[in-house]
Amino acid sequence: MPVAGNWYLSVPSFPGFPGGRRTRASAAVQGDRPTFVCDMIAIMSDSTFDGVIVGAGFAGLYMLHRLRGLGFSARVYEAGSGVGGTWFWNRYPGARCDVESLEYSYSFSEELEREWQWTERYATQPEILRYLNHVADRFDLKRDIQFDTRVTSAIFDESSNRWNIVTDSGGRASAKFCVMATGCLSTSKVPEYPGIDSFQGKTYHTGHWPHEGVDFTGQRVGVIGTGSSAIQTIPNVANQAAHLFVFQRTPNFSVPAHNAPLASDVDKNWKAHRAEYRQRARTAPFGLLFEQNDKSALEVSREERQRQYEERWGYGGLGMMGAFGDLLFNKEANDTAAEFVRSKIRGIVRDPAVAETLVPRDYPLATKRLCVDTGYYATFNRDNVTLVDTRSTPIEEVTAKGLRTSDAEYELDSIVFATGFDAMTGTLCNMDIRGRAGVTLKQKWSEGPRSYLGVMVAGFPNLFIITGPGSPSVMSNMIVSIEQHVDWIAGCLEYLREHGLATIEATVDAEDAWVAHVNEVANATLFPMANSWYMGANVPGKPRVFLPYIGGVGVYRQKCEEVAAKGYEGFALSACGS
Ligand code: NAP
Fold it and tell me: For residue 395, how many other CB atoms are within 10 A of its CB?
């Protein structure tokens, strides 16, 4: 005779699902059959979880850690064969983070932070991947991650209030809530040039680099694109290749990194004051610790402006964006910074015609992602590097031997596509995600993404998106934003459990208001002036909508906290059994 209350069942393990688990189910007695009230399970099996997390990068790992800590059962599905997300896939030569390593790391564990030693001011991809493996091992996370498994669909079942997950290996899982930790830049994009299959050499995409590395020694290499990935790749490929052709459609603004080994006194100082630094990052506009000068670029003398820009150029990194308070809001102010960087390019690149081709002119500084480089512009002084301006001579086709532009054919042994990603929405829309009444996320977002706070979507109960469109995400230090979202989601799930609630779902009104606010803030800036991936402009046919929230990390955090403090204002909450 079943007994009402909590059940504890042990379930066996089977391939792909290590370890038998004890799972708690709340049940009520109805006659001699248990009726499951709410928060647990209809069918006990090892593929039934409180939460399913998609992705084992920075976001998925921390989410798993938090859920475990709260006593929720969770499974992470990861398409790669290891942890790391973006840092697992992006292994192109020169790949490193352009946010300083001390800042681009988890803050949730003081012990973790004290025991880990970064070696350089900006960490390389291999070092970040080592760090993430260390985190996964230190917190024993891997046993709940199923690798080499891509989630193909996540469908909400309204009768049970559960998400049914299907993977590419045919696996199935059921979960009360589903967390998309799929990253903002995880669906890579290759241009649809005619003849692409006819090329007899090798092709690569920076976002899916071979794990064994690539040796370009003696080769004629073409790199297509001049975004952040290309700007890191190009100097390294130029060091190896017999000849490198850089196919540039839009020139980018880049500032020097001035990377160096991490000085021990810098590390010591960070560790001594870590709590204070972390707190400052959590409320800084971009979640970054560079000094933000609130003055207008137009209220100071020409000399003062020059001094600010020189100082920031000399220090290196993304701090150039904080030189003045109005750089991202006032075109005239922005012009002063843009002109400064243009003059630097002209100073570095010896051939004036090449320099002019590298100079960005048709959008304000930092309205396409500001790049951070090591020797990028100087690479064009090398005899074995040729810049091809595909704005004036577009690429028309890929041939068996290489690339043909409107005025020449370039014979190549390898082509590197550094052509970016279907950012923020691509991965989510490619997955078959269905909410209420079978509506897919792709349908819902056909005119551009709509979300409440960038973390939940009306019509998709109990589905959380970490750093989704409409949140600061890519306009911030990703780790700061990831930790904020994960903590908010964890708090929300605790709240649901404590209050005996079955579902949480953004209301249409709250979502509409948030989307309007995101647009209003974006339109008050210079960002819409650029054809950037922030605007979806890099994917043909993608709605032109500013994807992240640019209101600032601190302001956004405060808004999220207020929403939670008011009992999840703007969300509809449903009780168990309702
Ligand atoms: P991206 O910034 O989107 O750059 C793609 C490049 O490919 C652009 O130069 C683009 O030209 C060009 N391109 C795209 N389609 C093309 C086509 N059909 N024909 C010719 N050129 C084409 O991509 P990404 O460099 O991979 O960087 C994406 C983001 O990843 C960055 O903005 C950054 O947020 C992140 N990232 C970060 C780091 C880091 O250090 N933290 C490093 C790498 C990347 P147009 O500009 O004309 O479209």
Answer: 19
Residue with the smallest CA separation from ligand 1 atom 35 is 228
* 202: Cα separation from own chain's centroid: 28
CA 233 vs. chain centroid, Å, equals 19
Collapsing DSSP to helix, strand or coil, 348 comes out as helix
| Residue 191 CB contacts under 8 Å (≥ 6 apart), including other chains | 224, 395, 417, 419
Q: Hey, how many other C-beta atoms are within 10 angstroms of the C-beta on 218?
A: 10
Ligand 1 center–CA 569 separation, angstroms: 37
Residue 89 has pLDDT above 70, yes or no: yes
Ligand 1 pocket list (CB less than 6 A): 97-98, 185, 191, 206, 224-230, 232, 249-250, 369, 390, 395, 418-421, 474, 533, 538
Q: What is the CA radius of gyration of the chain?
A: 25
Q: In sequence order, what DSSP letters do the residues of 40-53 get, joined into one string?
A: S-SS-STTEEEEEE
Distance between CA atoms of residues 353 and 356, nearest Å: 5
Q: Quote the Cα angle for 255-260-266, to 5°.
A: 110
- Contact at 8 Å (CB) between 260 and 267? no
Q: What number is the average pLDDT over the span 332-340?
A: 98
Tokens read off for 57: 């990068």
Alpha-carbon distance 184 to 420, whole Å?
11
Q: Which atom of ligand 1 is nearest to the CA of 231?
A: 25
What does the angle CA 109 – CA 464 – CA 44 come to, to the nearest 5 degrees? Answer: 90
Q: Which residue(s) pair with 28 in the sheet?
A: 35
* pLDDT tens digits for range 493-508: 999 999 999 999 999 9
Token pair in block for residue 539: 């994917």
pLDDT over 50 at 17, yes or no: no
Which of 192, 248, 249, 372 to mutate to test ligand 1, by most ligand atoms within 8 A of the CB atom?
249
